[in-house]
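Revision sheet: structure tokens.
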Amino acid sequence: MGNICRSPTAEAVFRSKATQAGVKVYIDSAGTTGYHIGEAPDSRSRQAGEARGYRFQGQVARQLQKSDFRDFDYLFAMDSKNVEDMLALCPEEFKHKVSLFLSLSDSETDNVPDPYYGGENGFTEVLDLIEAASDKLVERLQQDAQAE
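Predicted:
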């Protein structure tokens, strides 16, 4: 939503996992609101991610733009509300690109919970969910590349 917790974590985790797997991608994160434009990721997100070796360097919150729907192959939302907000902005011809990030994983939930107002465990839980979905996305991209 604000591009300071979940989506920057997903950006850092997926970038790391794709790089390790040799998958070349262009990745960026954005929020559906402009609440935190220009801010660095939340310190608690960074702390949880950096403890596992992820890097957040250079990340700054930005708001989703219509051009993102054209420029990216996949647009993942962290929860159902953000999917709704994204689809409301998305041109019809690109709506197929929008989905829930956890739809890629074997998670029991579709939504990555927002840890912003929760305790420290919330950031660790978010990281666990994002790592699992990132692994699945890397596998999917590797399979797609082999099929080409």
